[in-house]
Amino acid sequence: xxxxxxxxxxxxxxxxxxxxxxxxxxxxxxxxxxxxxxxxxxxxxxxxxxxxxxxxxxxxxxxxxxxxxxxxxxxxxxxxxxxxxxxxxxxxxxxxxxxxxxxxxxxxxxxxxxxxxxxxxxxxxxxxxxxxxxxxxxxxxxxxxxxxxxxxxxxxxxxxxxxxxxxxxxxxxxxxxxxxxxxxxxxxxxxxxxxxxxxxxxxxxxxxxxxxxxxxxxxxxxxxxxxxxxxxxxxxxxxxxxxxxxxxxxxxxxxxxxxxxxxxxxxxxxxxxxxxxxxxxxxxxxxxxxxxxxxxxxxxxxxxxxxxxxxxxxxxxxxxxxxxxxxxxxxxxxxxxxxxxxxxxxxxxxxxxxxxxxxxxxxxxxxxxxxxxxxxxxxxxxxxxxxxxxxxxxxxxxxxxxxxxxxxxxxxxxxxxxxxxxxxxxxxx
Length: 429
What we know:
Elements: H1 3-32, H2 51-70, H3 81-84, H4 109-130, H5 137-169, E1 193-196, E2 199-203, E3 219-223, E4 226-229, H6 235-243, H7 255-263, E5 273-276, E6 279-284, E7 287-290, H8 302-311, E8 315-316, H9 319-326, E9 333-334, E10 354-355, E11 358-364, E12 390-393, E13 410-412, E14 421-422, E15 425-428
Parallel strand pairs: 9-10, 11-14
Antiparallel strand pairs: 1-4, 2-3, 4-15, 5-6, 6-7, 8-15, 11-12, 12-13
């Protein structure tokens, strides 16, 4: 490729990213439209963050890793924001404690929104000024960081929804945020198991387009024959586990999980299940509903997923098995674009591999062979968390469809369940 072609290619990429940047930034504001000012500062638990913080942090990311590098005569919007809205990037400063984000009554919501407008305008100005010299090494790096920032904001859009749900779902008023009915599409299909005899396979990615560093490099894995369920576990099926004293049977649980059950740290039902007048109900982002037996069970911890699988005389997929199964499937399903904000019953012949719920795997979140983190502080983005967590796959009803792919690796601690997490069963052949 000659220089003129290279310049044209990078220029086109920057223009496309600029359009996507504007759409994604606007989408974050749209997700906040149903909120009242009182909602923006609430932090219902240490792992969740207030909406105002998400709005500011996603702007801080572009401010710190993009504008501070490429904006001529850069001047910080406010010098204290570098600490207040840093999440965990120790390489660029001392982050404000995560558990205290809800104490930040100032800056005000109006000031945070002004910060967003400043970052948006400055980012557009920098990219516009660069388009005339798009063959430079800086322009290529600029495109890479801009795209990472866009993908990062899409992750926080999902976190925004899950954090809001935790707040609203623990309020006795059970207020509705937004969303459409997640009524069942008929009756759940009969669960059956499809057989796979893969042998030596490749997982991960080496694509030239965007992927996170933890998805690379592509490498070989040997898989034994296995079976995988044709759909997700439903509320009705998980209720059978509950009614069979599944939460009281020590033999089903890992030691750490059993200890949490004994101390009350883990409630003996899914996170948003409630007993109302002797009937099970479930909080969704559109309010409290009677439990729909045909919908996928959701907000399940990794510990619960493993206990259920043991009870069902099955197991969870490994992440390599999941990726191998999903690699030939179209990325279609119930994503945030549906505006349902809750899993749905599968349509006929749908396997629900993408969307609806993040599927727990039994695989620890560890680096792939030959893994190389991003240079500098951005290397903390994924690499620093590769300890004591499990991998989840497939995306959820709160994930953007444009954000997900078969190689995408999400990760949470096995006790976590405030995300839209669910269960797919597997068996050995």
